[in-house]
Amino acid sequence: MTAIFPDLKGASVFITGGGSGIGAALTEGFLRQGAQVAFVQRSDASEFVAQMEIDTGARPHFMPCDITDVSRLRACIAEAAEVNGPVTVLVNNAANDRRHATEDVTEEFWDWSQAINLKAYFFACQAVIDGMRKAGGGAIVNFSSVSYMMGNAGYPAYTTANGGITAMTRSLAREFGPDGIRANALLPGWVLTDKQLEMWASPEDLAAHMEKQCLKAHLAPADIVGGTLFLASEASRMMTGQSLVIDGGVVFPG
């Protein structure tokens, strides 16, 4: 069961990485609210788009895009505005948490990781500001992660970007609040997407992580949808510059 947010009906929503994992759940969630959804993803999402039309009765607008290509990302946001109207909800979701050791990081890998996990977020935000301002306001939801709050090892470039995302979100909230533009960060815990299950979710690691959670159930992509819809909607109209954690009770911010 998902709450209905009437103000999201007809809203122009842009999601990065919206065709797989958490992003796919977000796309479906916004479609079921009656929003007009456009999303980008590097891999082909044609089958997902067709399935969404069958499942929800609405067809999201998919544009192939490597978000590290800022020019292409900007072009996709402009296209989304032409198709659905100015973007008034931006969800920066796409990320890559490839594991790596500090000693093995090259300058090229560092730049690649920041380009995906932080740089693209900034320039997507930049690209929607003017349209949101003209529309009288909007909502930005930047996905970070509790991994940096936990001080996790094994992917320092990724956790550095996560910290940067929350810091950037606060600055954007302060700068564009007078324009009615809200910016909040959403920090999921370990969400067991197909990718996570295939690459990193060993029985031992899953058991160890469960010991850290207050709620004894692993997170699924659907568990992140409600919080995102809330941050995107007028239900959170006086909430900006904040970090919303959905992790089953691993970290306690505050």
UniProtKB/TrEMBL annotation:
CDD domains: SDR_c. It comes from the Bacteria. The keyword Nuclease does not apply. InterPro entries: KR_dom (IPR057326), NAD(P)-bd_dom_sf (IPR036291), SDR_fam (IPR002347). Residues 11-203 form the Ketoreductase domain. Keywords: Oxidoreductase. GO terms for molecular function: oxidoreductase activity, acting on the CH-OH group of donors, NAD or NADP as acceptor. PANTHER family: 3-OXOACYL-[ACYL-CARRIER-PROTEIN] REDUCTASE, SHORT-CHAIN DEHYDROGENASES/REDUCTASES FAMILY MEMBER. Belongs to the short-chain dehydrogenases/reductases (SDR) family. This is SDR family oxidoreductase. It comes from Rhodophyticola porphyridii. The lineage of its organism: Bacteria, Pseudomonadati, Pseudomonadota, Alphaproteobacteria, Rhodobacterales.
